[in-house]
Amino acid sequence: MKYVIIGNSAAGVGAVEGIRQMDRQGEITLVTDEPHHTYSRPLISYLLRGKVTEEKMKYRGDGFYADNHCTLLGNIAATGINAKAKRVALSDGSQLPYDKLLVAAGSSALVPPFEGLDTVQCAHTFMSLDDARRLRDALAPNKNVLIIGAGLIGMKCAEGILGRAAHITALDLAPRVLPSILDDDGAKLVQNHLETKGVEFRLSRSVKSFDSTVAVLDSGEKIGFDILVLAVGVRPNTALLKDIADIDRGIVINEKSETTARDIYAAGDCTQTLDISSGQKKIMALLPNAYMQGECAGINMAGGQKVFDRAIPMNAVGFCGLYTITAGNYAGDVYAGNENGNYKRLFYSDNKLNGYILIGNIDKAGIYTGLIRDRTSLDTIDFALVCEKPGLMAFGKEDRKAKLGGEAG
120-231 — its CATH code? Predict the structure, then answer.
């Protein structure tokens, strides 16, 4: 059996490990347009900050490929797929045959067509190890940085370069930071924290045009900069399956990570899947989901039977010592807790926990995540206790036994 995996990040690694659970002999080939050993993309801001080394960023150890008897084709892009002939075309002109194919091509930085962007000499995106290296080389204590985007990528970039630039300004069309994962009050808390560290914000603003080292805003304000970082958003890499499999916002997959094309699977940031907390199909560009989708795909590619149907949006991130975990969606009634500078919001309806936001004290977040993933009926637990002090004592005796793997205390 010949397995081909396009992608070398979390979903690709998950697929390798899933295949090897079922098949120790089949040929596995990974194709990636990067020259690197598999690494954890969320750690690139910590690399800039000096909190990790490139060695520590590795998602698996040096022996991963050899131990799993797979071949890595690095610095080579997949340029096309012939689904009838079951071959992948590569950028070096060669063709790679497959019996089972996984597309785990990830996502790319979204670069809007700003007027005058081509006049900016020092413009960067912030998605990859190479992006982080180039930005690190450009930074200097006397340079001003303008970040377009105050979402997760932009804010992690800001944290990563603190202390390495003269000034950092973050701009976003949204009225709050981290608009996709925080509510108004939670966003204000994070914004205030980052402002105390030296980040300046321009919110509810957009760039009208660029002129070399000046950004002209829609308000008429002009912001000078030496380094520009574009962190507006990401776009799933779906082009390889155009006219081959169903594509909506992302590649459409089922609970087995199968596409609508025979013997072709997909996983990770390039896919669209069901969010069980809302019942909506969406793109969830999250490392844990990517790995689990990839592992699911690998097991099924190798003839096993595996379902991954528990995907939810979830983010765990820290900003200069302020830790935040969010999960699910924010529909329904709200439990609000604010104690000792910590921020908690739980969202629930129809006897189910839909989502949560924790800022500061993130202990026991896994309790809330489990309630969402398992779609636990809240009338089977002491929900009032869970809201205030999450722990196993809020669950019934049998549930405590199951969670502890033995006798409940």
Answer: 3.50.50.60
Do residues 345 and 336 lie in contact, with contact meaning Cβ atoms separated by under 8 Å? yes
Identity (one letter) of the amino acid at 164?
Answer: R
Which pLDDT tens digit goes with each residue over 92-112? Answer: 999 999 999 999 999 999 999
Sequence ranges of the chain with CATH classification 3.30.390.30: 321-405
CA angle 373, 238, 250 (to 5 degrees): 35
Nearest to 191 by CA among 244, 154, 225, 166: 154
- pLDDT computed for residue 391 by the predictor: 78
pLDDT tens digit sequence for 317-353: 999 999 999 999 999 999 999 888 899 999 999 999 9
2-108+235-301: CATH class: alpha beta
Edge-first strand order for the sheet with 280-282 is 251-252, 271-275, 280-282
Mean of pLDDT values over 212-237 = 96
Q: What is the pLDDT of residue 405?
A: 55
Looking at the DSSP bridge assignments, the partners of residue 328 are 355
CATH superfamily placement of domain 321-405: FAD/NAD-linked reductase, C-terminal dimerisation domain (3.30.390.30)
The residues of the chain that CATH labels 3.50.50.60 are 2-108+235-301, 120-231
Angle at 235 between CA 311 and CA 51, to 5 degrees: 75
Alpha-carbon distance values, 318 to 41, 136, 191 (Å): 15, 20, 13
Percent of the chain residues past pLDDT 70, beyond the cut: 96
pLDDT tens-digit series, residues 196-211: 999 999 999 999 999 9
Token pair in block for residue 335: 């439990």
Tokens in use for 197?
């560290």
Cβ burial of 28 (10 Å; 0-12, 13-18, 19+) is buried
Q: pTM of the entire structure?
A: 0.92
